[in-house]
Amino acid sequence: MLMLLSPAKSLDYESEVLAVKTSRPRWMAESAKLVERLRDLQPEELSSLMGISEGLAVLNHERYKIWRDKPRASQVRAAIFAFDGDVYDGLRAREFNEEQIGWAQDHVRILSGLYGVLRPLDQLQAYRLEMGNSSKLVVNLASEEYFSAVQEKNLKAKVLHIVFQESKGESFKVVSFSAKRARGAMCRWAIENRVESIEALKTFDRDGYQYCPDASDSMRWVFRRKLDAR
Q1: Sign of torsion over alpha carbons 202, 206, 208, 209
Q2: I want to staple 208 with a disulfide (CB 3.0 to 4.6 A). Which of 52, 112, 139, 225 is the partner?
Q3: Handedness of CA 122, 127, 133, 139 (dihedral sign)
Q4: Which range of residues forms the domain containing residue 186?
Q5: Following DSSP, what letter does each residue of 54-74 receive, concatenated?
Q6: How many domains is the chain partitioned into structurally?
Q7: Is 24 helix (H, G, I), strand (E, B) or coil?
Q8: Averaged over 7-36, what is the pLDDT?
Q9: Is residue 42 situated within a structural domain?
């Protein structure tokens, strides 16, 4: 079983993290070609391309100038520690021990606009690029925005989509902020418990969520919580 996470727009290269042996991303050659194209763009072009502010465009223009195919140790951080956003707040990877990180390396993948697909320990250089493995079952914990860039028919695997909803009046809806946290929390829970069975996912119950069979189908599982259960 493989779990997919979205990347985060924010990065953290300052916090103290577990000392780990990092791995080289598998598609660095393709990433390097993409960076070469991005280096040709001026900040205003990057701003228009990615819909980001002028300040962020300048920052990433500088990042691409120093990006290297073979980076120095000071330029990289393991992807699972470098991404810093709502999903990763739920994941709380900095609290993992070496054994848990090792398990995650085999069972978790992070989608990336620049690197394609990252393993948790893959070396991540600071960047910003908005998007777009063969396993019998892929559990999609990525956002719709990022997973839409995956050509699902080419995965050669069944894809189980996980949806988190909460009560809003008398109905249940996806609340973006809460859903991001929940996706990270489910991934953390699976790592902690070494979950490899699809049926075991139905027992996930953190933060008040419960599997809802009436709202689910075979490849789209819905987890719901009532606001008063938070």
Answers
A1: negative
A2: 225
A3: positive
A4: 1-18+77-230
A5: HHHHHHHHHHHHH--SS--GG
A6: 1
A7: coil
A8: 93
A9: no
Average pLDDT, stretch 39-48? 88
At residue 135, the pLDDT reads 47
User: Please, what's the largest Cα pairwise distance for the chain?
Assistant: 54
Nearest to 159 by CA among 198, 105, 191: 198
Q: Give the CA distances from residue 72 to residues 10, 60, 61, 126, 185, in Å, rounded to whole numbers and listed in that order.
A: 21, 18, 19, 12, 32
Q: What is the mean pLDDT of the chain?
A: 90
The reply to whether 4 falls in a domain is yes
pLDDT in tens, 163-208: 999 997 789 999 999 999 999 999 999 999 999 888 899 999 999 9
Task: Determine how many CB atoms are found less than 10 A away from the CB of residue 161.
Answer: 18
Report yes or no on 28 lying in a domain.
no
Asked whether 64 and 40 are in contact (CB, 8 A), the reply is no
